[in-house]
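subagent[fold] <- orchestrator: predict structure for attached chain, return tokens only, no commentary.
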Amino acid sequence: MKRIALSSLSLALLGIAGAAHAQSSVTLYGTIDTSITFVHNANGAAGQNLWSIGNNSGGDLSGSRWGLKGQEDLGGGLKAIFQLENGFNPANGQLGQGSRLFGRQAYVGLTADQYGTFTLGRQYDPLVDMVQGITADNYFGSTFATAGDVDNYDNSSRTSNAIKYVSPVFYGVQVEGMYAFGGVAGATGSGQTWSAAASYNTGPFSVAAGYFVADNPTVTGLVRTTWSGTSDGTFDGSLINLGLQTAKSINIARVAAQYVLGPFTFGAGYSNSQYRADGQSAFASTEIFNTGQGFLNYQLSPALLLGAGYSYTHSSGQASANYHQVSLGADYSLSKRTDVYLVGAWQHAIGETLNADGTAVVGAQASVGSYGYPGTNTQELVSLGLRHKF
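subagent[fold] -> orchestrator:
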């Protein structure tokens, strides 16, 4: 009888475990994106050209990554969720996002269809979640991004120590808010980040807008030497905004709209980015970047997408410059998971910018998108790439 009872208990426990397993799921996923890249005027005043496998950002259409995500049904429509996402450069295998193991995303949370989603950890901000998806960057990546990515158009920045809430969709409207703790004892606001955004989608037409503020903590010395807030910052290595790393805060307002008409997709956007100075900044006055962008995509066939975009950025403050960028792209799907692409851009810079440490005004340098290659007053970049998703 004892043997039968133990066997029955074992079967019951296995049944419970099986039921629990059926209500939970974990997914391994990833993207590998690399290219043969040519850059004309790739190292500042020297004006020399560059050939490379991959590039400074590690990917053209998508940053290479692998990750784990999952959910557990808690009953009553409530689910526990998590996501861990690692970024890497396939050209050399190095970790991305400051050599973090899960530098792209690392969060846990709760979600319910009726109440929305609440998450805690390292995450994208609401502007990335709501606005980026209806810009050219969503289709052709870094080559179509704002000069120097001064407005985080290409998702250069992620936020640690963040609490985020995403609402359900009500009649096409969705809202999102985020707050990140600075973690400085006795100074609650030092190093903090906050952001909010909203979107409206009616099918062919989508529009989204939001605001983002990241604080750079006060230091014990007289002048900051770098950026160290809860958000990564938007500094890709080019002189377009490299000299602004000692800013007190980065304030970004963005709006974008998209309309789909048959095989055509039209999009436009505007951003205002302010790198605000204080007494501990190496530069003297707030630098403001106003950017207007537009793009047109054409789905020539089910497998082939063509795109063209234009971006204009005007900076003003201690230095003033204009950046004109024209981008072209073609993406051909070999299967649902694998595609090949050809993307390119030309940029022209006019005016002046700050040097690398923000202490002097120098001639403006062109730097396509968010790649971070410093050019002369012009720069051209072309990439032939292969991307695989799993």
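orchestrator: received. Logging for downstream: Residues 2-22 form the longest helix (21 residues). Helices lie at 2-22, 126-130, 137-140.
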